[in-house]
Write a structure and sequence with these properties.
The complex is a heterodimer of chains A (125) and B (289). Chain A is an alpha+beta fold. Chain A has four helices and three strands; from the N terminus they run H-H-E-E-H-E-H. The two termini of chain A are 22 Å apart. Chain B folds into three domains: 2-144, no CATH class; 155-164 and 226-288, no CATH class; 174-224, no CATH class. The chains are: A alpha+beta (125), B mainly alpha (289).
């Protein structure tokens, strides 16, 4: 779980040294190297104690010869190092949307857990 | 503090513009919320034109289509069915017209992108005139006004969120321990596997108080606090009946009924035809600690 802290410091150091001549190449090896999350981290002041999750949604056909698409979303805990976070036992289930059609307005399905998430924030603050 | 929910809002905003189907949404909601338009047949022709561009080539066709359907209503249909048919015809017409609008070019898309960035900081009351953005705004506004009281969470869940377990759970009862071990051992198998194993144990040791499947499942949920919550959705997976759609009784895209008519006749209760399952993230993260 210390991965987030270490990685953020490493990336910050790399970005600080970007002007130096002997800085070498910048390595892009995780989502924390990306500008989006770096900007956000600067904005909301992320530190190593925070929890960062990614949401992933995709459809899966459950039976080979049957129209049986089910859309499953999962949470990936980004505080773990990349070789741990995608392991089956560390991936958290999010939403299961039964098919067989694909969801047309995906936001409306995400709405509920975003709202529940917000309750949780209110409580924690 | 405001930035804590910046992440979900930004997320919702950025994925929406890529969903072209979303154009068809708002129009339908406005029509459904307006009972006059659903009731009076002479309004059918007007309602699509009220929202669509005059240059739309498909529009006359689709308007005719809705008229044809409404003329078809025979007298033996009761009023309720008439409304439904009218509503469906109208929605179909609007969807057709808007789909044609969609194809008009990429101009609207770029406009949409620009607006979604610009309006992120706007006050929620200032709703966009672009359906797609307005929809997202309604979602974000609903989320940001959320409290435990106006939500749709069970009391048990809220209680557990308020009082997370701070110490390791100790299971001293050997019967409960046996039930939990069995439950976890067959977690990849079917429910029947648990039943069969439990029956086998009960046959040999009738006095062992091994729990039933539902009891052990409830026990695990209680110990961990991780629960699944079920919400209504359209039977064709168009959208969930949440946020701006929460009060609707028919899908705003395909017009399918939200509740099972046969069940309502039998029990008098509204039972959803299709539900989706959400496993809340908060309790899961709490259980990780």
């Amino acid at each position: 779980m210390r991965y987030l802290d270490q990685k953020m410091k490493q990336v910050a150091e790399m970005l600080n040294n970007i002007q130096a001549e002997d800085s070498g190449d910048i390595i892009y090896d995780d989502i924390f190297s990306g500008s989006e999350i770096q900007d956000l981290a600067e904005h909301i002041n992320v530190n190593g104690d925070d929890t960062i999750v990614s949401l992933s949604l995709d459809g899966a056909q459950l039976y080979q010869n049957k129209k049986s698409d089910t859309w499953i979303s999962i949470w990936i805990l980004d505080n773990l190092s990349p070789n741990q976070r995608y392991q089956k036992k560390r991936v958290l289930p999010g939403t299961v949307i039964p098919g067989p059609n694909k969801p047309k307005i995906t936001d409306s399905f995400f709405f509920f857990f975003l709202k529940a998430f917000y309750y949780w924030f209110i409580y924690l603050l | 503090m405001p930035y804590l929910y910046h992440i979900p809002i930004a997320h919702v905003c950025t994925i929406s513009p890529h969903k072209n189907d979303s154009y068809t949404i708002f129009l339908s909601i406005q029509l459904q919320d307006d009972p006059d338009k659903a009731n009076v047949s002479s309004d059918y022709e007007r309602s699509p034109t009220a929202f669509c561009d005059d240059s739309d080539p498909l529009q006359p066709d689709s308007t005719n289509g809705s008229q044809a359907t409404s003329d078809f209503d025979p007298d033996d249909l009761d009023k309720h069915e008439q409304q439904d048919a009218a509503l469906q015809a109208e929605q179909h017409a609007c969807a057709m017209a808007l789909r044609a609008l969609d194809q008009l070019g990429s101009e609207s898309n770029t406009l949409l992108e620009a607006d979604s960035d610009g309006e992120l900081d706007d006050t929620p009351a200032d709703l966009s005139h672009i359906e797609n953005i307005k929809f997202t705004q309604e979602f974000t506004e609903d989320i940001s006004t959320a409290t435990f009281e106006n939500g749709c969470l069970d009391d048990d869940v809220i209680h557990h969120l308020h009082n997370p377990c701070n110490e390791p759970t100790i299971i001293s009862d050997p019967n409960i321990r046996l039930s939990l071990d069995l439950f976890l051992a067959v977690t990849n198998a079917s429910k029947e596997t648990y039943h069969a194993s439990r029956n086998a144990i009960l046959l040999r040791y009738p006095d062992s108080g091994i729990l039933s499947y539902h009891a052990v499942k409830r026990l695990v949920a209680q110990k961990m606090g991780v629960v699944a919550v079920y919400n209504d959705m359209c039977i064709n997976s168009c959208h969930a009946f949440m946020g701006p759609f929460a009060q609707l009784r028919f899908c705003s895209i395909c017009g399918e009924a939200r509740y099972d008519v046969a069940q309502a006749a039998l029990t008098g209760k509204d039972i959803a035809r299709q539900q989706f399952c959400t496993i809340l993230l908060g309790p899961q993260l709490q259980a990780l600690q």
